[in-house]
Design goal:
Number of helices: 4
Structural class: mainly alpha
Distance between the termini: 20 Å
Helix content: 55-70%
Oligomer: single chain
Strand content: under 5%
Order of helices and strands: HEEHHH
Radius of gyration: 22 Å
Length: 160
């Protein structure tokens, strides 16, 4: 098949998958930066049951508890959860290091819903950190893998 053997096809397939992962990640980042993270930025969450209420509501629609008005200058949409990036780095880069990224990313929205903004910001920072750690580990592994393949090809022996 065009003079390309099975090992070369494997390398090309892995390279294609890595490029596709990068393209998908960039598309998701662009979409996320152009869209608002929260459809209703003035929503108020009930501290008792966690129900999302309209921004002008004074009592929870579900349980009737009096609602606290949101603090000025602190909208929930300003705390990114990095869930899409965490899933992509877990699948395509490094599974063991991507799992903490998913865990922390999943905590962001639930902490915001409970009214714990400081906890949500901390979980967001940890999710971002673990996404980068997983990404760097995955890219490092791919670079080392391809270096070993190229060294093997240049040496005239097939170690793969």
């Amino acid at each position: 098949m065009f003079g390309i053997g099975i090992p070369e096809l494997t390398i090309l397939f892995i390279l294609f998958v890595m490029i596709a992962a990068v393209v998908i990640g960039v598309v998701l980042l662009i979409r996320r930066s152009t869209q608002g993270a929260n459809k209703n930025p003035r929503a108020v969450f009930c501290m008792q049951c966690g129900t999302q209420n309209a921004g002008n509501a004074t009592h929870c629609a579900r349980c009737g508890t009096a609602l606290q008005s949101p603090q000025l200058g602190s909208s929930d949409s300003s705390v990114p959860n990095y869930l899409a990036q965490a899933i992509l780095t877990t699948i395509f880069c490094c599974v063991p290091l991507g799992i903490p990224a998913i865990v922390f990313a999943a905590q962001v929205n639930s902490k915001l819903a409970a009214g714990d903004r400081a906890g949500a910001v901390e979980a967001s920072k940890k999710a971002k950190l673990w996404c980068w750690i997983s990404f760097v580990a995955g890219v490092g592994f791919v670079i080392i893998y391809f270096a070993i393949i190229i060294i093997g090809m240049l040496g005239g022996k097939q170690y793969y």
